Amino acid sequence: MDSPLYIIRELGRYGFMDRLGDVAIEPQYLEVEDFYNGFARVRFNDKWVPMDEMGRLLLRHLFGYVGFFEESLARVRLVRQWGYINRRGGVEIPVRFSGAGDFSGGLAPAAEQVLWGFIDPQGQWAIRPGFDGARSFSEGFAAVKIGDYWGFLDKTGALAIAPQYEQAGDFREGVAPVWSGDQWGLINTNGEMLLSPQFEGAFGQGQGEFFEGLAAFAQDGKYGFVSAAGEIVVEPRFAFAGDFSSGRAPVSLHGRYGYVNTTGDLAIKAGFEDAGVFAGGLAQVKNKGHWGYIGTDGQWRIPPRYQAALPFRSGLAQVVYRGRWQYINEQGEVVWEE
To answer: Which among 20, 61, 27, 24 is positioned nearest to 42, based on CA atoms?
Structure first.
């Protein structure tokens, strides 16, 4: 099914509709998540179960945990052991590992007792266990832990960057965030330090994620933006900064929200009570207690009249109007209503 599906709610139960507003999967579940790579997780008999876009549940086996499908395999946990299922719900790699991560680049981190290595899609060791921690590959490198420090492997299993960091994130656009205490900096794929750890934020809070070539950072309680080349492009002067999209990023200045361009100039003045990230050329903003949508020029496209509003996705946005869910199109027309 090429068209995306959207979560809907009726009488406290959740299902899905298509882009036209037609019900694709009847509301019948107490909890659901959005579709990702062809599957959504739904709560069934107090367990999360994958469901395909036709509404079919993968019920051949029930697990305590089911992850997301990556490269056609999803990690699963049964009691304390991990394995992988395929897109038909069958067990592709038996449940026998003490830990497991997602597949990326044809390999997945997995643990045998306390040591981590990497397996192939057949469940065979491609890189034997020998590490105290491991994360999925990204751009040809995987973070691994030896002793107290993290470094990076290449796909041959050779150490490309020696363990020397207290924490390490994934490579994106040729750079990876690394930590010393609760401060992070950036290295390149040669292990060269582009920026020594100096930005605020503990590991696991989204630091070092680049959007349109820039990543937000915090320093002394103020936010700015750094490039993938390790250059501070926008000096830290904002109380908050979000992600770039459509050449704009939300920022907070003097208690109000606006948007900057990629050089740090205010492209849309800080006059809103709250603001979201642009998606499809529109961003949700709050004015006088209600949400609406503006364009990249800062002009209203859909007037503020909603109690809540989410970003547009494939032409539709979920909003709350008078306490009820709605989906609207980019013209503000109601496509579906609770």
So the answer is: 27
Instruction: Judge if pTM exceeds 0.70.
Output: yes
pLDDT digits (tens, 9 = 90+) for 198-231: 999 878 777 889 999 999 999 999 999 999 999 9
What does the angle CA 304 – CA 306 – CA 311 come to, to the nearest 5 degrees?
A: 90
Chain centre distance of CA 196? 25
pLDDT one-digit tens code per residue, 267-309:
999 999 999 999 999 999 999 999 999 999 999 999 999 999 9
* Residue 331 CB neighbours (<10 A): 7
Spatial CA neighbour of 35 closest among 329, 242, 313:
313
The whole-angstrom separation of Cα 333 and Cα 10 is: 20
Residue corresponding to tokens 């920026």 = 195
CB atoms < 10 A from the CB of 134, how many? 26
Rounded to whole angstroms, how far apart are CA atoms 281 and 288?
23
Do residues 335 and 8 touch, judged by C-beta distance below 8 A? Answer: no
What is the overall mean pLDDT for the chain? 96
Q: 286: which strand partners?
A: 274, 291
Which CATH architecture best describes the domain 244-337? Answer: Beta Barrel (2.40)
